[in-house]
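Subject: mismatched residue count in predicted assembly?

I count 286 residues in my input, but I want to confirm that the predicted structure covers every chain. Input:
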Amino acid sequence: MARFYFDSGDRDLTFEDEIGVECAGLAEVRRAGFEGLIDLTRESLKSVDGQQLFVEVRDENGDKIMRLSLLLRVKLLK
Amino acid sequence: MANHDLVREGDRPVYSFVVLDGLVGSTKHTGEGKRQITSFFVAGDIPDLHGLHLAVMDCNFTTLTPARIGFMRHDTLRSICDQHPRIATSFWRSTLIDAAIYREWVTNVGRREAYTRMAHILCELIFRLRSVGRIQDHVADLPITQAALGDALGLSTVHVNRMLQELRRSGLIATSGSKVHAMDWAGLTHAGDFDATYLHQRNLADQW
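Triage response: the counts match. Full output below for your records.
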């Protein structure tokens, strides 16, 4: 088990994770990050074209190891 | 120790237990194995008092922190209730308050945003621990894991961390190790949409 830090945010504001989460391997990091992104989307997604939400994962050395992101596109079709 | 099942769903207990120290949660699991903590219990609470009248347990009770527990035989509790109606009444009252807490939690998990939800649960814990004299001021020692907080709030661990961070950034709480300090109680109750009425603590609300 190692501790990973899941920073999250949109283009304007990033919250640095100071607490971290214990994960056993990259598959678990990915699952935790994905669940975090779902919660972030539910809470923070606005109806703004181009809005991007992300979770970026650092390891204990501070190295970035994974980024999960979503981009909202709104297009008028008529 | 933490994460120890005291009573399991399907059990037919002949005892009820009282929390002497620590934090206990009532929990349910979905078919997929996801855990929901449906309520917290602190020192002085008798979480499975309903087992006195309902033969089969419909949820689990699990320690969330190291805890000390006392067990009371159902036949003994029944004869105490028969002989002392006032004790029977206070037991009844206790299970009614448990139900009020469950109603509040359904509202919290179902309708409040994550930030409000987190602030609310911290308010409830601090208020209850203070009511039973377990904490001074507004500093609570809560050696509860973020995963358990997530299971109580229906949030991912990553989002639990983010919400704690937001509350800290707003100056509402400070954390150090497992200690949570409500720096601004009025602000935290406002952020948490917290009104202690549902806890039915007589006369205590005036002291806050």
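Chain B has a mean pLDDT of 93. Marking this ticket as 'not a bug'.
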